[in-house]
């Protein structure tokens, strides 16, 4: 080809990156890998092939870890943990050394990642590896600051971490860097398709002089992941599909293991008619064709405002038709190879089953390897399978909307809630829409921005927990202090037939601001310790929970009120409780047979004051992300929370969880102490006179064990907390897998939780990225 030819065609010339250094490293390592346990590689066992999806060539042989390997890795991590946790500065130095080594070997990592995964070298070189190094730098700082900034937190212990194949090294960095910074040790399982950069990372750990046992890598398929989740670890951190996340939730239920899940998504990409269309098109190329669309937060669901839709689609088709699909090691390639023929088949089948209008980019595809063309499907209805299910490939589905309200409705019409992009030149509109989107991350006039300082994670079936930022450290620490075993409390049952005057009353339920009879029509007598009849308490059932959820939904406005207003109402509740201090104290003493009723009421009033104080002080943060712009970390309420109250304290058991939950904007349905329900039912009258909007707090009475599974499985509850003395933690966590709601259970133990825990449990961090400039 002559220079003249090049000027005439303006075609790309080949720009190949050499695979040689990565292939040499594989040869140096013997092309066969064992696991990395206790600071060294084990001898390879039974192996499977690691293949290059762009060519089908075998790159290396990787060990399928056995139960003995997993046990040895966990034991090594356990042995190393206490010493590793001791010195934050030493940890900072180690993490810094890893970051430096990642940078030093950046090209080797990038080429190896591209060979193993099929992603374009442009992306592994410019995105995956630099972001992984940044994560270690950032968390080197966190290790240094832990003692000073998080003096009341301690490491969780040994972490089991399972990562997927779409960002193999980056996901490893997101897991390992914060875990190590906070003094934990780890056993990580990479995905079967993409183990090689994790093994190179293990080599880097050796070079960095990381103490043995601090990082362990066990390779293999899902069975190894299952072994790891069942192992004696203190925490599981998982990124992958919602289906496997659900299985892990069920498998770990009741084990006491901490859990974070970063799962799938079907993230909306919303384009308003006043958007800068060319920028929005470029953004879309990145949103759905970056990494072949194998991105959990891919902007895979395009919503375009009707007025600009025809023009937008024309421009989009013209742009996608120019995307170059091909050899991932070519630096001028836009879209590389899919990770495996299995993934190619899944995507092909999903698209072929669609009845929408399918447009595939016409550009030539390589004749061998796992390639799929950039694809746009229009004309789908919101309920179509492809509008709802994650395709995890370079396939964009689309529909139109007319008004901003409709855009929000369509955007939220999914079981997922990972990310969202919105495009408009009207900042008022953007900042109005961003808080209304059910997503953990929102990008305004941008997409796929990530940084170690900014939290990432989802809501709904996209999982729970955040990675990155201060909020990400919550997943790798726990509050210092010990817990005590809980004793189940039985209600007093002996009846001497002598009611306490003046009258035997049956306390109703409190739902939607009104006293309501229980759906089942049953109640039970409540006695004093000496057997006198105090009254009757209603027995709520599944339908009463349903009614309470409806009442909470009708009270959504509470979550949009100001912290100042919420504080005023909490103070007012405290004031009204204070006016009836003696009456409540006497009631508590009658119920429990104790004498500390007055102390409990004083404590309840203090608790209400404390959370009134916090209502307008849980500051949001603006994150110093490395770009011209900011990322806001907004502390949003979870929504509807179901609480099983502490049985031992008739009034405090109710106030302790309800006050922080409503102070931070949630609506609550609380099931009162099962043996001592009548202080909570007296409390209605306090609420009724305190200007609390109907439905914000609903109070049920009844059997915790009967109500817990219904609460845990109810799709309308966003979280369930259990402080009950009944042993319900396993059942709640297991049933919560259906909706993947957040749970906070006591595992039959009790302790005093610090403010930071209540704040974190009552809120969800939404990261809103706002780039500056024209
Ligand atoms: P999986 O969820 O199956 O895999 C993620 C990780 O979990 C891998 O390391 C996998 O091992 C491991 N694993 C599999 N089964 C279990 C188990 N029972 N217990 C513990 N760990 C397990 O995702 P896939 O990689 O198979 O991809 C399937 C689909 O998941 C994709 O098409 C996509 O829709 C979605 N996905 C979503 C991701 C996200 O970031 N949200 C990331 C990756 C996939 P191994 O791979 O070795 O089998």
Question: Layout of helices and strands, plus pairs?
Answer:
Elements: H1 3-9, H2 20-28, E1 32-33, E2 36-37, E3 40-41, E4 47-51, E5 58-63, H3 67-86, H4 88-104, H5 106-117, H6 121-149, E6 153-155, E7 158-162, H7 168-181, E8 185-189, H8 196-207, E9 215-217, H9 222-230, E10 235-239, H10 242-252, E11 258-262, E12 268-271, H11 277-289, E13 301-305, H12 309-320, H13 341-352, E14 357-360, E15 375-378, H14 385-388, E16 395-401, H15 404-411, E17 419-423, H16 427-433, E18 441-444, E19 463-464, H17 469-473, E20 477-479, E21 484-485, E22 506-507, E23 509-511, E24 514-516, E25 523-527, E26 533-538, H18 542-554, H19 563-578, H20 581-592, H21 597-614, E27 621-623, E28 629-637, E29 640-644, H22 652-663, E30 667-671, H23 678-688, E31 697-700, H24 704-713, E32 719-722, H25 729-736, E33 742-745, E34 749-750, H26 755-762, E35 763-771
Parallel strand pairs: 1-5, 7-8, 7-10, 8-9, 10-11, 12-13, 12-17, 13-16, 15-16, 17-18, 18-35, 22-26, 29-30, 29-32, 30-31, 32-33
Antiparallel strand pairs: 2-3, 4-5, 6-20, 11-19, 14-15, 21-34, 23-24, 25-26, 27-28, 28-35
Helix pairs in contact: 4-6, 5-6, 6-7, 10-25, 11-12, 19-21, 20-21, 21-22, 24-25
The chain binds NADPH dihydro-nicotinamide-adenine-dinucleotide phosphate.
What does this structure look like?
By secondary structure, this protein is α/β, with parallel strands linked by helices. It has 26 helices and 35 strands. The strands form nine sheets. The chain has a ten-stranded mixed β-sheet. The protein has a six-stranded mixed β-sheet with strand order 9-8-7-10-11-19, with helices on both faces. A five-stranded parallel β-sheet has the order 31-30-29-32-33, with helices on both faces. The structure holds NADPH dihydro-nicotinamide-adenine-dinucleotide phosphate. NADPH dihydro-nicotinamide-adenine-dinucleotide phosphate binds next to helix 9 and helix 10.
